[in-house]
Amino acid sequence: MSKKKWLTVGIATMSVLALAACSNKSSNESGAGKHITMSSKYSGPGKATTAGNNSTLKIAEVNDAPFTGIASGTLASNAEDSDVFSPGAPGGSDSLFNVTKNWKIIDGGLANQRLNRKAKTVTITLRKNARWSNGAKVTAKDIEYPYEIIGNKDTTSQQYSSDYAAIKGMAAYHAGKAKTISGFTYPDGQKGRTVVIHLTKMSPSMKFAGNSFIWGGVEPYEYYKGTPISKLASSKQVRKNPIFTGPYKLDKEVQGESTTWSPNKYYWGKKAQIKHITIQVVSMNNIVAAMNSKKYDFVLGGIGSSQYPKIKKLKDYGTAGTPALSYSYFGFNVGHMDPKTGLNVMDKNAKMANKNLRRAMMYAVDIDAVAKKFGNGLSWRANTLIPPVFKDVYDSKTPGFKYNMKKAKSLLDKAGYKKQGKWRTDPNGKKLVIHLGAMSSSSATEATYQYYLQQWHKAGLNVQMTGGKPMEMNSFYTTLQKPKQNKMDVFLGAWSTSSEPTPTQIYGVDAPYNMGHFATKKNTELLNSLNSNKAWNAKYRVQQYKKWQEYMNSQAAYAPEEFSYSWSPVNKRVKGYNVAAENNEFWSSLSLTAANPK
Predict the structure, then answer these.
(1) What is the per-residue pLDDT for 34?
(2) Structure confidence at residue 427 (pLDDT)
(3) Half-sphere CA count of 501, side-chain side, radius 13 A
């Protein structure tokens, strides 16, 4: 779903730093140089052939770690899982709705949606021929079940945020005080086609896929119901034999390495044209050689911008891409999550509690120079925590953290971080060692890590890599997702965001994804204002979004690193490649002109 908000509608996802996505537009205030403009479409010459479509479409998932293998959109928490299971989902995510180019929900998908502001209800009606890939009917209960998974007090899902409490009965269910969510009703029964969701408030974001109030996918209740929600993520239904609603069904999974697909005969939409698909994990450092030897047709999840000069020289590949629904960021550890309340709590004695220390670290690094050296026009310095692809609410005028070492040192001096010899001490005169957590990635990205360390050292801060080197992705997030950890004081990550910009699921006080544990009354007020009753006035909503972006920069508990383009090389035998948002049949639209990559 979409905080691919990990890649799908309404989900939050983390992806490797080098794969963070961005936009092709920038302002004078953020980024350096001109950005490359790409088409979202590519279609090779010639006509599709029977031999081509009967062959195997070969796809690379560029990542430097194995994928986790969680096929459920509600339980997955990284973009890689969303990618490798995407052929099983309409449009590339297990989504309920068709959308326009701006991700506005329209009729024609797995289900249709109707909002009633006066009654404060959302009615979702499935199409008559909606089926799972095992032939079972998709039911009204399958629409509701994701909310049970997300809201369960013992769940491993990280999708919950306070926005879901707008559904009647969800807060009681989430607290373990109710066994069901009272806000769901079924006009034609749980095995029927319609669900009515009753809410305490309506939000303008509900008009768009990926919002943080209405989940955009389904989960197979009858298939899952024998397994406790706390154990679903490790169940065979999710890990070994998952079922889907999209154009392809899963034939085989090699844990962490690859997935293999064939057409789903029960799919309600446009029939898949290609008979076989394989998706295989390939490291960032090996992807250029693999493409050069024609091993893959295209990639999922994007390729680091540092690889672009070599990729664009490949004669038998075109390129296609879009402004990315993602960005990379710096996070600072300022507290913990209270396991009893599920709320993030700031610690005034935390090493990184002083906002001027955090701001100084950001001014000390020249991200414009990094983007110029490695970005190749496909990535640039980010100035806020809202990607510019959301042009209505993105604040292009805020400067963000433009390099200023003099200001960085001044902030540290005034905050009491005095130099004693080579390094600065904390304001109490005690030794200060700051640990940076970052994931294994391409040589260019890891060179960036060393540059950041160098700059912080110049500012007098003794910053060292956690464990002395970059971390494997799964270990990185396992550490970071603990309620409390002290191994990383500052960390580098990337969000693959939702297709609706509300950031509550990432930065809210009760958001599991708020892994730096930033939680202030002001942040909660601003986040709530983005979807308040006043926010139905577009001008007010834009104003509040910009206030939130400015506030987050002033606090620097999370600070933007880079925006970028999400792009892929596409082999000339591929026809119908189109990653535009309004292409609701991405996988079914693909066909092949030859039996092997050209």
Answers:
(1) 57
(2) 97
(3) 23
**Which three-class secondary structure state does DSSP give residue 558?**
strand
Among 454, 53, 78, 481, CA closest to 277: 53
Q: Are 153 and 290 in contact (CB under 8 A)?
A: no
Name beta bridge partners: 113. Answer: 124
pLDDT for the residue numbered 91: 60
Supply 255's token pair.
């844990």
Count of beta carbons in the 10 Å neighbourhood of residue 528: 15
Task: Indicate the burial class of 294 (C-beta count within 10 angstroms; 0-12, 13-18, 19 or more).
Answer: middle
Looking at residue 236, the DSSP 8-state letter turns out to be H
Of 231-245, 255-269, 303-317, 405-419, give the lowest mean pLDDT range. 303-317
Query: CA 153 to CA 170: how far, in whole Å?
Result: 11
* Pair of tokens at residue 325: 């629904």
Bridge partners for 380 per DSSP? 563
Is 31 a residue whose pLDDT tops 50?
Answer: no
Tokens 């490949």: give the residue.
314
Q: How confident is the model at residue 184 (pLDDT cuts 50, 70, 90)?
A: very high
DSSP-assigned letter for residue 229: G
Note whether 594 and 408 are within 8 A (CB): no
Q: Quick one: 34 exposed, middle or buried, by C-beta within 10 A (0-12, 13-18, 19+)?
A: exposed
Tokens 């360390």, located at residue: 453
Taking residue 22's Cβ as centre, other Cβ atoms within 10 Å add up to 31
Residue 115 contacts residue 183 (beta carbons within 8 Å): no
The DSSP 8-state label assigned to residue 138 in this structure reads: P
Of the candidates 529, 483, 475, the residue with the CA atom closest to the CA atom of residue 502: 529
Residue 12: the pLDDT is: 32
Q: Which helix (H) or strand (E) holds 114?
A: strand 111-116
CA distance 139 to 141: 5
491, containing H or E segment: strand 490-496
pTM of the model: 0.86
Closest of 305, 311, 102 to residue 211, by C-alpha: 102
pLDDT in tens, 539-597: 999 999 999 999 999 999 999 999 999 999 999 999 999 999 999 999 999 999 999 99
